[in-house]
Design a protein that fits this description.
Shape: globular
Radius of gyration: 24 Å
Largest sheet: 6 strands, mixed
Distance between the termini: 64 Å
Number of strands: 15
Structural class: alpha+beta
Strand order of the largest sheet: 5-6-7-2-13-12
Strand content: 15-25%
C-alpha cells in the first residue's frame, strides 16, 4: 500500500463534472504482413504479460474517511483486465481526422474510481498512410494522479517492445494483489500524519529560504523585486523607492506580463473535447533551430506562438500584448525512490504572438524561455510536490474547488499550456506491428481551454492539440497554422542563411 503525494491528490481534487485530469497517449501502428495478427487480442495479451512491470495499471484508490488524509493506492484484488482494454473502430474511409474525432469523444468522460484509473482503446479501421500498410491505433488514458508526463513515457516503453515479435518477459503476469486496509488503520495513519505535518512545513520553509538565498544574485529575482517595489504607491512606496534607479538596465531579463490578455479559449470549459494532431520531421526542426542558434524547445514555443498569432489574426482577435504559456518542468533526476508519482512543476513564458516576423518570433521565444528558466531557478519550484502535501487534505480539497470556481470569473493565470516531451529514439513494437506515431493527448481545465503538447519519437515530432470543443470548434485551423508557421520559419532561416552568404 502506498499513499498518494499531495500533488498526486491535487489532480483528483480538481476534477469535476466538466474537467477530467487524465492524460493520454495515442499510438499509431502499422499492421504486419501476418494474416493471423489481430490488434485487440495482441494488445490485451501484451498487457497481461507485463502487468507485473506496470504498477500504475494494477493500483486502485482507497479513500480516507472525511478526507482527513491523502488516499492510498493498493494492488486491486478485484482487477479485471477486460474492463480496461476496449475495442473501437473508425468508419470508412478511416482517415486521421476521423481518428481525432473519436479520440475527442473517448477522452471526454471521467475515470471510474472504483477501478484502477486507466482505460485503453484499440481502434481499428485506419487506412494506410500514403498507400502503405493498413494501420490501427491504441489510445491509453491514465489519470494524472498516477503518473506525470515523464513517468507516462517510461510506462509506454514497458508496455511495448524494442524488437518485433519479442518473447514474453520473465515472470509474465505474476503479481500479488492487496486487501484494502481497515477504516481504523487509515484513520490512525491520518492522525499520525497530522501530528507530523507542522514539522514538515517548517522544514520545507527552510529549504525554500535556502533556494531563494542561492538565487539572490539572479537578474530575474532583481527584476521581479524591482517590479514589486516600483508598483508601490503612497508614503510607504515613497520610502521604499528612495534611491531607486529610474533607468533600468536593458540587459536584465524581463519577466512575462503578470496579467494575460483575453482570448476566445480563456473561459470556463465544457465537458466536450476537440482533439487534432499533426506531425513535423524532427531532423528538419532540429536543423532550423541549429541554423538559428536555437533549441528544439525554442522552435516549439515559436511555432505555437506563430500559429496562435495566425489563428487569432484570422478571427480579428489578436491582442496587442503577447500571450503567455505555462511550461511544465520535470523535476526527475533519475534516482527517485518512487517512480510512479508526479515530480513536476511549471514556469510561465511569453509567447511571441505580438511579433510579425518568423525569425524575430524565434528569437523572442529563445529569450522568453531563457527568462522562464531563470525565474524557475530563482524560486523554489522544485519543492512544489512537497508543498502540495502540507495542508489538511479536506481543507486543501475545499480550497482547490473554490479556486476552480473563482478561476471561471477571474483573469486566466496564463493563456495556454505548451509542453515538449522527449520520447523514445528507437522504434517500438507490438508483436510484429511497428509503432509509427506517438501522439500526446493532454488535458484542459478552467479557464485555460487549450493545450499543445509535443512528443518526439524516432525521427518525427508529433503534436497533439486539445481544446474545449465549444471554445475552439475550429481547432484544426490552429493545427494547420502551426504547420504553416514551421514552413515560414524554415524558409526565413534558409533565406537568412543565403543572404549571409
Amino acid at each position: 500500500m502506498k499513499q498518494l503525494s499531495g500533488l498526486d491528490s491535487a489532480f483528483l481534487d480538481l476534477e469535476d463534472d466538466h474537467q477530467f485530469l487524465h492524460v493520454s497517449q495515442l499510438l499509431i501502428l502499422e499492421r504486419p504482413d501476418d494474416p493471423d495478427f489481430a490488434p485487440y487480442p495482441a494488445w490485451r495479451r501484451q498487457l497481461a504479460d507485463r502487468l507485473h512491470q506496470l504498477e500504475p495499471l494494477r493500483r486502485r484508490l482507497v479513500e480516507v474517511p472525511f478526507g482527513l488524509d491523502h488516499p492510498y493506492w493498493i494492488a486491486d484484488p478485484d482487477f479485471d483486465l477486460d474492463f480496461h482494454v476496449r475495442h473501437s473502430a473508425v468508419p470508412p474511409p478511416g482517415t486521421d481526422d476521423q481518428l481525432d474525432q473519436l479520440v475527442g469523444r473517448l477522452i471526454a468522460a471521467p475515470m471510474d474510481r472504483e477501478h484502477p484509473l486507466w482505460v485503453s482503446h484499440v481502434i481499428e479501421g485506419l487506412a494506410g498512410e500514403d498507400g502503405g500498410a493498413d494501420r490501427f491505433a491504441i489510445l491509453t488514458m491514465i489519470h494524472h494522479s498516477a503518473v506525470d508526463g515523464a513517468a507516462g513515457a517510461d510506462l509506454l516503453e514497458l508496455m511495448l517492445d524494442d524488437v518485433p515479435d519479442a518473447e514474453p518477459p520473465s515472470h509474465a503476469g505474476e503479481w500479488t494483489s492487496e486487501e484494502p486496509p481497515s477504516t481504523a488503520g487509515v484513520l490512525a495513519r491520518a492522525a499520525a500524519h497530522g501530528l507530523r505535518r507542522p514539522a514538515r512545513g517548517l522544514l520545507l520553509a527552510a529549504r525554500a529560504g535556502q533556494s531563494v538565498a542561492r538565487a539572490s544574485r539572479n537578474p530575474a529575482v532583481i527584476d521581479l523585486a524591482d517590479k514589486v517595489r516600483g508598483s508601490l504607491r503612497g508614503p510607504l512606496g515613497s520610502v521604499l523607492n528612495v534611491g531607486r534607479e529610474r533607468d533600468p538596465e536593458h540587459d536584465l531579463p524581463r519577466l512575462p506580463p503578470l496579467v494575460t490578455p483575453p482570448t476566445p479559449f480563456n473561459a470556463p470549459v465544457s465537458r466536450y473535447r476537440k482533439f487534432v494532431h499533426r506531425t513535423l520531421p524532427l531532423a528538419e526542426v532540429k536543423a532550423v533551430g541549429k541554423e538559428a542558434g536555437a533549441t528544439i524547445n525554442d522552435v516549439v514555443v515559436s511555432l505555437c506562438g506563430g500559429g496562435l498569432r495566425r489563428w487569432l489574426l484570422e478571427r480579428g482577435e489578436l491582442p496587442d500584448q503577447p500571450l503567455t504559456a505555462m511550461i511544465p518542468v520535470s523535476l526527475r533526476e533519475g534516482d527517485e525512490d518512487e517512480q510512479w508519482t508526479n515530480r513536476v512543476s511549471a514556469t510561465v513564458a511569453a509567447l511571441p504572438t505580438d511579433i510579425d516576423d518568423p525569425l524575430a518570433r524565434l528569437g523572442a521565444a529563445h529569450d522568453a524561455l531563457r527568462v522562464a528558466k531563470q525565474v524557475f531557478a530563482a524560486l523554489p519550484g522544485e519543492l512544489t510536490p512537497d508543498a502540495a502535501g502540507l495542508g489538511v487534505p479536506a481543507t486543501v480539497t475545499a480550497v482547490s474547488r473554490a479556486l476552480t470556481r473563482w478561476s471561471t470569473v477571474a483573469p486566466a493565470p496564463f493563456n495556454t499550456v505548451v509542453s515538449n516531451v522527449p520520447g523514445p529514439r528507437e522504434p517500438l513494437y507490438l508483436g510484429g506491428a511497428q509503432m509509427t506515431h506517438y501522439i500526446p493527448v493532454s488535458a484542459v481545465a478552467d479557464p485555460v481551454g487549450l493545450n499543445i503538447t509535443v512528443q518526439s519519437y524516432v525521427d518525427q515530432l508529433d503534436i497533439g492539440l486539445l481544446a474545449c470543443a465549444e471554445l475552439m470548434p475550429d481547432l484544426h485551423t490552429l493545427a494547420d497554422a502551426v504547420v504553416e508557421e514551421f514552413e515560414a520559419l524554415r524558409a526565413a532561416v534558409r533565406g537568412s542563411g543565403n543572404d549571409a552568404g
